[in-house]
Design brief:
single chain, elongated
Length: 263
């Protein structure tokens, strides 16, 4: 009787857990397809909702296109995975539950492997991460008029962490798209006034003549982000452990239910 009660708890917890992710995945997919199919209606809606010019940065065609593919990929993965978990529990299908368990185990194994490699090969991981981040600037970072999702991500990161580039402002000399602006540093590298999402320099001369007083041009974002993680290590560990716990519970519930159905 106790065993049957435990199996029922596992079944309904698995259904509830995956139903929530199923809804989230469906929403991400829907928004992603909407952006991919009809960008103009999104821009019109954004304009109607708010006259805030900062929001209009997200209405750039390139930003919308990149965002749509990210949402479709993320939403599709969550949708399929949660569908396997929910339908497997609802229909009591050992095949679906087994596939669901294998996928969750694979994801968890990849996460543990990545963390282990990063710890054991810290110097190499540090170098490779820096080079990857620099490549995103050299390949994608552009002027405000031609901004894409990567450009916006870097602008918000620099404004929020009060930094410039990966190592410093020289990283932007690698970007041909940015060089068209004829500026030394992006506005986001400057000391800003008002709401940071507008990227308005306190000193209008900063983008052309950055200095220690009007910008953060010599402060790299990699070190700034690393320092933030160290200062908030407890929060980072708590989030990682929470995600791992959710995955482990999903595996346990699916395996218990699968074992019960199998015999």
């Amino acid at each position: 009787m106790a065993a049957d009660c435990g199996i029922m708890v596992a079944k309904y917890c698995l259904k509830l857990f995956n139903f929530l992710f199923f809804i989230a995945g469906a929403i991400l997919l829907s928004v992603g397809f909407w952006l991919a199919i009809d960008k103009n209606s999104f821009v019109r809606l954004l304009t109607q909702i708010s006259k805030d010019t900062a929001l209009h940065q997200f209405s750039q065609p390139t930003v919308i296109e990149q965002a749509s593919w990210i949402l479709i990929a993320a939403g599709g993965f969550v949708f399929v995975l949660s569908c396997l978990g929910y339908c497997g529990a609802y229909q009591e299908s050992t095949f679906m539950l087994g596939t669901y368990s294998i996928l969750i185990v694979a994801i968890l194994a990849l996460e543990i492997t990545a963390a282990g490699l990063a710890i054991n090969y810290k110097a190499e991981a540090d170098t490779n991460t820096r080079e990857f981040l620099k490549s995103t600037i050299s390949k994608y970072y552009a002027t405000a008029e031609k901004a894409d999702a990567v450009t916006l991500m870097w602008n918000y990161l620099m404004a929020q962490f009060k930094c410039c580039g990966v190592e410093n402002y020289r990283d932007f000399s690698l970007s041909e798209k940015w060089q068209q602006s004829n500026k030394v540093v992006p506005n986001a590298c400057c000391v800003l006034e008002g709401d940071i999402q507008y990227f308005k320099p306190k000193d209008p001369a900063c983008p052309d003549r950055p200095s220690e007083s009007n910008s953060y041009y010599n402060k790299g974002c990699y070190q700034a982000l690393y320092s933030w993680i160290k200062q908030n290590l407890d929060l980072v560990i708590a989030v990682c452990l929470s995600l791992a716990a959710i995955q482990v519970l999903g595996i346990i519930f699916a395996c218990c239910l699968c074992h019960s159905l199998g015999g």
